[in-house]
Amino acid sequence: MAEDACHTAYCDSEYGCEITDDSERCYYDNKCYTYDCDEYIGCTSTPIICNDYDICTDDWCDTEQGCVSVPISYDVSDKCYTYYCDPTSGPQKIPLICDDRDICTTDTCEPYTGCVNTPVYCDDGSECTDEYCDSECGCVYSLVDCDDNDDCTTDSCDREEGCINTSVVCDDDNACTDDDCSYEGGCSHTPINCNDNNECTTDSCCTFNGCKNTQVDCDDYDECTNDYCDPNEGCVYLDVECDDGNYCTLDSCNPHTGCVYVESECLCNDFNACTIDKCEPFTGCVYTPVECGDYQYCDNVAGCINL
Hints:
Largest sheet: 2 strands, antiparallel
Number of domains: 5
Mean pLDDT: 91
Distance between the termini: 251 Å
Shape: rod-shaped
Strand content: over 45%
Number of helices: 0
Structural class: mainly beta
Order of helices and strands: EEEEEEEEEEEEEEEEEEEEEEEEEE
Number of strands: 26
Strand order of the largest sheet: 1-2
């Protein structure tokens, strides 16, 4: 009889009773147990504990391989985190740092796509500024240059419409100037020429009405002249013709009254007592010899004298 449960007794024909170690019968190919042979109870099998004390693994035992430790699975779908598993505390996630260190972007994170760096929108809603983003200063707004380099416009800017180039009003409310505008010089006010090339007018200009060509007054207040105006020469003064066609009048002119016609008894007086003096309007003086009586003769001073 064997001395314990791990040995087997048998009788050999040559040697007699033999005792052999029979513990190998207790070992199997299942690697999930440890096998042994107890001298009192015989074969024993103890399950292998596969805990690697790492909560980041799932531990089990494979009959062929023995202990197997496989990393646990956990949710890593949110792309706004980086993930790792701590052996002691388990799955961990750290927020993703999306800061691209560019102040010209707005940095956010989308769970499905990860970091999103959106360019900053610098538009201030004004058509009077040019805007851009500087990587160091951020949004920069500079005034739009509305100068069209035209002195004939007033340049301004409207927040909604942008540059406005309004034509300059050069009217100086003076009818005596020609108002014009030069691209480079701006408004100019050139005096107008009111000369009508007529010597019979006095040319002037009135601020409100413009040119005034006033007829020249050629009256010299002399009744002995005929006054008129020649466009080329100006005032002309011609002597009045006072001849009335009557040989029996003395014709003259008085500056205040005009022509004067005087009938004078002395006009045809030849101071000869031997003639009868008279005047015929159409022929002039007529001297008719005096007829003395018989026995008389005529003396130029005394007239008829008796012989």
